[in-house]
Design a protein that fits this description.
The protein is of the alpha+beta class and 152 residues long. The protein has two helices and eight strands, in the order βαββββββαβ. The protein is 16% helix and 29% strand. Its cofactor is Fe(2+).
């Protein structure tokens, strides 16, 4: 699912309609605010990170493209995941980081084009009462959702 613009392997982000001819939903203000705040917080520690105003959100899939070097803000929700990244596709040489629910990962500039992806999803054996309450209140299914926010 995409907000703002749709990804198409042939036209990239040029297509502004769904397969049924309808327009994609606009990017929710809360997502825009989340990305802006995450970047502002990161800029306190790293002044090389440029600002951006996201107008695209890819949900539940990660796609490449957009060569501008502007930051990508990735928000993890739900199950934890092993995230790999590096300058090679050789899994033995890649760096690994655990992304847990609520984690925000930002990368841009020279690192925008690095190889990256989720190696595996870590399924919890049991759930806390708090997690169960979130499921009840939101109607989300168990699993992992990734929000990838970027500017076209």
């Amino acid at each position: 699912m995409c907000f703002g613009r749709l990804w198409d392997p042939v036209t990239k982000y040029e297509k502004s309609y769904r397969s049924d001819g309808s327009a994609p939903p606009p990017l929710p203000f809360e997502f825009i605010s989340l990305a802006e705040n995450a970047i502002e917080d990161a800029q306190l520690h790293m002044n090389l990170l440029p600002s951006m105003l996201p107008d695209i959100c890819d949900c539940d899939e990660h796609v490449g493209g957009l060569d501008s070097g502007l930051p990508v803000v990735s928000v993890s929700i739900g199950y934890s995941a092993e995230f790999l990244y590096g300058h090679t596709r050789d899994e033995n040489k890649l760096e690994k980081v655990l992304l847990e629910s609520g984690d925000v990962l930002i990368f841009g500039g020279k690192s925008r084009r690095i190889f990256h992806g989720v190696r595996r999803i870590l399924t919890p054996l049991d759930y806390s009462q708090g997690y169960s309450q979130v499921i009840k209140e939101t109607g989300l299914r168990l699993g992992r959702l990734n929000l990838t926010l970027k500017q076209f």
